[in-house]
Write a structure and sequence with these properties.
single chain; mainly beta; 7 strands; globular
């Protein structure tokens, strides 16, 4: 296996880990980017959070019907992971830790944050805030 996978779990109880909102694993190749703040219209409004974006699991490359008619099925959708960080305004250092994990780990599965076990790739990460895997566009 040459591909690396990024793992996130927000469920604090093992019996509750049964939906995409509880845990998710994305191939590193689907990672699109990250920024400080949250996934709201005004991302700077949340200094103790950062967001990671991924290509959609359920809407491969965003298009379902493949036509350019402008309907919703042609919209590019992304899946979103919001990460709570320990100290306000440390998103840059947290991002550096995450990128260094991508580059330096020899493992196939990279745990970015697991709220159940407490495993994290950075001491600056507090917890997984939310995991949003968008529904398939039909």
């Amino acid at each position: 296996m040459n591909e690396k996978y990024l793992y996130f779990r927000t469920a604090a109880v093992l019996n509750d880990d049964d939906t995409a909102a509880d845990s998710a694993c994305f191939p590193l190749s689907s990672f699109l980017g990250m920024h400080p703040g949250d996934d709201a219209d005004d991302p700077g409004a949340d200094p103790d959070r950062m967001v990671m974006y991924f290509k959609s699991m359920k809407n491969f490359d965003g298009a379902v019907d493949g036509t350019a008619d402008g309907d919703a099925s042609d919209d590019l959708t992304t899946d979103v992971i919001e990460i709570d960080i320990v100290t306000d305004d440390t998103a840059k250092a947290t991002m550096e830790d995450i990128i260094n994990t991508f580059a330096s780990s020899r493992k196939g599965m990279l745990v970015i944050c697991d709220d159940l076990t407490g495993e994290k790739c950075s001491p600056l990460i507090e917890s997984v805030g939310t995991i949003t895997v968008n529904d398939a566009i039909s």
